[in-house]
Specification:
Layout: H1 2-12, H2 19-38, H3 52-62, H4 65-89, H5 91-169, H6 188-202, H7 205-208, H8 211-241, H9 244-256, H10 260-282, H11 285-291, H12 305-339, H13 349-353, H14 361-382, H15 386-393, H16 395-412, H17 426-433, H18 435-456, H19 465-483, H20 493-498, H21 504-528, H22 544-566, H23 573-609, H24 633-653, H25 662-665, H26 673-694, H27 702-722
Helix pairs in contact: 1-4, 2-4, 5-6, 5-8, 6-8, 6-9, 8-9, 9-12, 10-12, 10-14, 12-14, 12-15, 12-16, 14-17, 15-16, 15-18, 16-17, 18-19, 18-21, 19-21, 19-22, 21-22, 21-23, 22-23, 23-24, 23-26, 24-27
């Protein structure tokens, strides 16, 4: 009210105030505003949380109500003056705002009139369109219901017609029983297709609730059970007899019913479970122990561990047939699926079963097969007992069984245009499943080799020739144990039938520990061999130290010869590559220790040959040439030295003693390759040395030529008799 009065007063004020008065008023108003803000009496009223009741209560409690009222009245007067000054300063703007408000009121009145007219028009249009819209909604609902009914009738009629056709292809006995015939009816595939189409229609619950269709439902269910039973019986019979016709017809039924991929997957699972049960039964220690109870030779005698082990092998051998049947059945399924196509869509059944980019059916089953074998073998290995001992000790026999299984599968499933049952890396996958027993067997074999070698030097004594022969026999026995197709005990007819010709993996498994044993033997011999000047003397009979060295080198020679003749020739190239470096190391160790003796003897013989240059040996003295019947003195000495070396040294190196001729013993040198090589090398060196120095003899007359010819014959005879 006060502001309105001030505004009215300001509008009626004198309009002739000068600009200076206005400026002075604005300055005074600004000063007054600052003073009002700073006034402590008015400051509480500027606070955001001002409470009039609280302020009045505080003033009354202070007892200064009169003075406070006076101060407030003074402040109100100052505020009135301030407001009046503000109105005067904003006079022009206030007039403009008042004019704008009047224009706005006039425009608002026009808008109210237009809105009323629009509301009346909308009401009139709504009244005109409401009835047609209602009728349109009702007709649309009616049309939708009619369409649904027509579609339901169409699908129901289709279902009834398919059910009628199904009766022509299925003998409905009304008992819900399954078919017992193994062969599928010629129209069973059509019945499966009809059932699949009916099943698509019956997915709609409205069709299934139609009374006429619901009346056919029991017959449809019985027909589905009957057709599926016929298909399963045909598939089972076809897989057992490997009949392509039965399996193909069964696959056609499952393809028409849309269950082909699921049925094949379930079939593969069943065969995997069958293989697992077969392996578990073969390696069931409790069943084996209870099955051989009371099987001893005497009445009431408990069965021995050997009988339990033999029972393990009999069960494993019998399980090979079951495993073979499972793998061949899945291969037969893939063969038929690859050939069979749907006559309508021409879709290959194998493409339906296996998607593009995935592994084939046999590859997937082989992986599952090897995984099952690996699982049961690992369980048998973790469970210590007679089964583990039998399979570790008889791993060659175990490998032979599975190797025969693979060979049989490869042979029987080798059909042109069809992938075999065993994939490319199938053999490696299967033998990887046997890895625990393979590694344990290799370790045990290496320990036996090491024990055989260590027993030779158990007490630090030099091994005798008899000990060397025992070592060779032990090595041959161990190799025969590992490389034999029979393994431990006799192999059954089935296993020997399935056995492969050569198992390179087994041969390498045999050669690796044997190679380490040969390296160890060569190292042990080198530790025991004595070196020094006394070991190289050839002027007297061999010393005890030399004889000891000869025995040690003879041990290497005997083992090298035995392994090279009886083991190396029986192994394939892969195993030969593993064993050959160890044999070469043994050969080098033996020849390196014998070579100083031959070198010293060759130097002594060369010194004897150098005496051919002495005066009077070949130089012509002008005497009349006569018959030359005796060799030169140096040649007689050479022959005597050769004979002594052959008798005292070479014969002892051969461990044959002085009996017989060394030349005959070394004929051919390959019979004793280590000593024979050194003897042949020395003989060649003597011949070459003699020829070089004989060619230097000058002058050489007729008598000298005759004597040299006689010495040549003597040298040939000496070498042939003493060496080669």
């Amino acid at each position: 009210a006060r502001v309105a009065c001030w505004v009215g007063g300001a509008m009626g004020a004198d309009n002739n105030d000068t600009a200076a008065d206005a400026v002075a008023a604005e300055a005074a108003a600004a000063a007054l505003s600052a003073a009002l803000v700073a006034d402590p009496t008015l400051a509480p009223f500027l606070q955001p949380g001002y409470d009039a009741a609280a302020y009045a209560s505080g003033v009354l409690r202070s007892g200064s109500a009169a003075s406070c009222t006076l101060q407030l009245n003074t402040g109100l007067g100052a505020l009135d003056a301030e407001l009046r000054a503000e109105v005067v300063a904003q006079y022009d703007q206030l007039l403009e705002a008042v004019a704008s408000l009047r224009d706005t009121e006039r425009a608002l009145g026009d808008i109210k009139l237009g809105a009323g007219a629009l509301r009346a028009s909308a009401a009139r249009v709504g009244a005109e369109l409401a009835e047609p819209h209602r009728q349109l909604v009702e007709r649309t609902r009616q049309l939708r219901n009619l369409s649904a009914v027509v579609d339901l009738l169409r699908r129901s009629v289709r279902a009834l017609k398919l059910a009628a056709k199904l009766r022509d292809h299925v003998d409905d006995e009304g008992d819900g029983g399954t078919a017992t015939k193994a062969a599928v009816r010629p129209d069973a595939a059509k019945a499966a297709q009809l059932l699949a189409e009916i099943g698509v229609l019956l997915v709609d619950t409205d069709v299934a609730r139609v009374e006429a269709v619901a009346a056919q439902r029991p017959f449809i269910d019985r027909a589905a059970i009957k057709v599926r039973a016929q298909a399963e019986a045909s598939l089972r019979s076809g897989m057992e007899t490997l009949s392509q016709a039965e399996v193909g017809q069964a696959l056609q039924i499952f393809f028409n019913s849309g269950e082909l991929a699921g049925v094949v997957q379930e079939l593969a699972r069943r065969y995997t479970v069958q293989v697992s049960q077969t392996a578990a039964n073969a390696l069931d220690a409790t069943s084996i122990a209870s099955g051989t109870k009371g099987g001893g030779a005497g009445r009431g005698k408990a069965p021995s561990t050997s009988q339990w082990r033999e029972e393990v092998w009999q069960r494993l051998t019998a399980s090979m047939d079951d495993m073979y049947a499972a793998v061949v059945a899945m291969w037969h399924l893939q063969r038929v699926a690859a050939k069979k196509r749907d006559p309508i869509s021409h879709a290959c059944f194998l493409d339906v079963i296996v998607e593009e980019g995935q592994s084939t059916l046999t590859e997937r089953f082989w992986k599952a097969f090897t995984d099952v074998i690996a699982q049961h073998m690992a369980n048998a290995f973790r469970t210590s007992g007679f089964i583990k001992d039998a399979l570790v000790e008889g791993y060659p026999r175990l490998a032979t069984l599975f190797d025969g299984l693979i060979d049989r599968l490869e042979r029987d499933t080798e059909v042109r245009g069809v992938a075999p049952a065993v994939p490319v890396n199938g053999r490696a996958m299967l033998f990887h499943a046997l890895a625990p027993f393979r590694d344990a067997f290799a370790q045990a074999s290496a320990e036996r080799y090491e024990s055989a070698v260590g027993s030779l030097f158990a007490r630090g004594a030099v091994p005798t020739r008899g000990a060397a022969l025992k070592l060779c026999a032990a090595l041959r026995t161990e190799v025969a144990r590992a490389n034999s197709k029979a393994g431990v005990g006799a192999v059954s007819a089935a296993a020997s039938t399935y056995a492969s010709s050569t198992d390179a993996d087994m041969a390498v498994l045999v050669a690796s520990p044997l190679s380490q044993a040969l390296y160890q033997l060569a190292e042990r011999v080198e530790y025991h061999i004595t070196t020094g000047p006394e070991t190289k003397q050839v002027t007297a009979a061999p010393s005890s130290t030399q004889q000891r060295n000869f025995n040690l080198c003879g041990l290497l020679a005997d083992v090298h010869k035995d392994v090279a003749m009886h083991v190396l020739t029986q192994l394939p190239a892969e195993a030969v590559a593993v064993l050959s470096p160890a044999l070469q190391n043994m050969f080098a160790a033996g020849t390196d220790n014998l070579n100083p003796i031959f070198r010293a003897m060759a130097q002594r013989l060369e010194e004897t040959l150098l005496t051919m240059h002495d005066p009077g040996v070949y130089v012509d003295d002008g005497a009349q040439v006569g018959a030359v019947t005796e060799p030169s003195t140096y040649m007689r000495n050479l022959r005597r030295q050769l004979q002594a070396f052959s008798t005292d040294f070479v014969s002892k190196m051969l461990s044959a003693g002085p009996v017989g001729s060394v030349a005959r013993t070394l004929s051919p040198p390959q019979k004793h390759p280590m000593v024979g090589k050194l003897v042949l090398k020395m003989a060649r060196r003597l011949c070459a040395f003699f020829v070089r120095h004989a060619a230097l003899v000058r002058p050489l007359g007729d008598a000298g030529r005759l004597r040299m010819a006689r010495d040549i014959a003597e040298l040939e005879a000496a070498i042939g008799e003493a060496l080669v």
